[in-house]
Write a structure and sequence with these properties.
259 residues; Jelly Rolls; Phage tail protein beta-alpha-beta fold; 3 domains; 18 strands; disordered N terminus; FecR; Ferrdict_sens_TM; transmembrane helix; membrane; DUF4974 domain-containing protein
């Protein structure tokens, strides 16, 4: 600093003149230099934006959507969960298949994972489960959950709502606009026969048995003695075989009429 002050003379240290000399030697005009600077800045910004967008799109999980058209469809999710979609139902998830959304009716045979519960969510409800078999059915009135095996919690997404715990053999209905599901007095476990292809009756009144079969096969069944009760398991392949077993087991005569 002392050296500069000692030898400084007015007009000798002119930064503008020095800059002009450099520009003259390089052949770059002041306006051109500024233009190039702005141009390269814009290019660098564009590259940065493109790189950031590419990284976002690469890291953003894609949505997987499963559908069933006119007939039911069975899908195996990456975690091993089996899902049966009723006609016109859909199921979708982003990245993690342990959190799904659905429309319509679906049956789930959920792969057990105690550290990673399986969640079925919607704008109105949430079902959480570790590993079990259950059915979720959406309708204009609301959503019904039926648990066939294991246990699950079922609640509304509205603030202040209370979830209910359902065990095997239980079902509940969450009506649109309500904050807490209502437990059904009597769960129809055979409501999932369309997906399991099995009927299960435990000390069931014959009237209820025939009603279940009539609904499933779209017929009308009656018997000459409705006071009997039935405990049996059937597959859904052949109605005539089921009728024959019931008649022989309960010593009744069943009449079938087409609807």
């Amino acid at each position: 600093m002392r050296y500069v002050l000692h030898y400084y003379k007015e007009g000798k240290l002119d930064t503008q003149r020095a800059l002009d000399k450099i520009q003259t030697r390089t052949g770059i005009r002041p306006k051109t230099a500024k233009h190039l600077y702005l141009r390269w800045t814009a290019i660098a910004a564009s590259v940065l934006v493109a790189a950031s967008l590419g990284t976002y799109l690469y890291l953003k999980p894609s949505t997987t959507t499963l559908t069933a058209e006119a007939t039911q469809q069975v899908y195996r999710l990456p975690d091993g969960t089996m899902v049966t979609l009723a006609p016109h139902a859909t199921l979708s998830y982003k990245g993690d298949c342990r959190k799904v959304e659905m429309t319509g009716k679906a049956f789930f045979a959920i792969h057990h994972d105690a550290n990673h519960p399986f969640t079925i969510v919607d704008d109105n409800y949430a079902v959480r489960d570790i590993g079990t078999q259950l059915q979720v059915e959406e309708s204009a009135a609301g959503t019904r959950l039926t648990v066939l095996e294991g246990a699950a919690s079922f609640g509304s997404t509205r603030s202040g709502s209370t979830a209910v715990a359902l065990r095997a053999g239980m079902s509940a209905m969450l009506t649109d606009g309500e904050s807490t599901p209502r437990l059904d007095r009597k769960a129809d476990l055979n409501s999932a026969a369309w997906a399991t292809h099995e009927f299960h009756f435990i000390d069931t009144p014959l009237d209820d048995v025939l009603h279940t079969l009539s609904t499933y096969y779209h017929v009308h069944l009656t018997a000459d003695n409705m006071s009997k009760r039935l405990t049996a398991d059937f597959d859904t392949a052949n109605l005539n075989s089921i009728i024959t077993v019931i008649e022989q087991t309960l010593d009744v005569k069943i009449e079938e009429r087409k609807e």
